[in-house]
Amino acid sequence: MKGYVLDDGEGRSYDWNDGFMFTVKAAGAETGGALAFMDFVSQPGQEPPIHTHDDEDEIFYVLEGTLTLTCGDDTLHARERSFIFLPRNMPHGYTITSEKLRMLVLTSPSGFGDRIESTGKRIT
């Protein structure tokens, strides 16, 4: 592995599941499988259903927008500059409560980012 820098907008961009826009900054190939790091953009109506990641923890950092999350039995509210931790094996989902949502997404290990790269429609 070696260090590198990607500017805003750089990385491998994918349309995943018709509307989930991810720009992968690092995934398993760059991190030896340790983590994936992505820039994510979405809008209301393009939220995932309640789901569970069995093998990875998920971290979001909200750059733009607001959302309401369900994590287990808890309802959480996040806005710009909010940090969100979603542990593996915990059912979770969210509703976007703003016109646009942009978040940084980190998963550990890298499985989710690797799935996006293997199943998403490559844009750039």
Shape: globular
- The number of domains is 1
CATH architecture heading:
Sandwich
Average pLDDT, rounded to a whole number, is 96
H and E order: EEHEEEEEEEHE
Q: How far from one another are the termini? A: 23 Å
Order of strands across the main sheet: 7-4-9-3-2-1-10
| Name of the CATH class | Mainly Beta
Query: Stretches where pLDDT falls below 50 for ≥5 residues?
Result: none
Proportion of beta-strand residues: over 45%
Largest sheet, described in full? 7 strands, antiparallel
**Percent helix among the residues?**
10-25%
Find the structural class using helix and strand composition.
Answer: mainly beta
- CATH homologous superfamily annotation: Jelly Rolls
Question: Could you give the count of β-strands?
Answer: 10
Task: Provide an overview of this structure.
This protein is 10% helix and 45% strand. It is mostly beta strands and 124 residues long. The protein has a single domain (12-122), classed as Jelly Rolls (Sandwich), CATH 2.60.120.10. The protein is globular and about 40 Å long.
Brief overview:
Helix content is 10%, strand content 45%. It has 124 residues and is mostly beta strands.
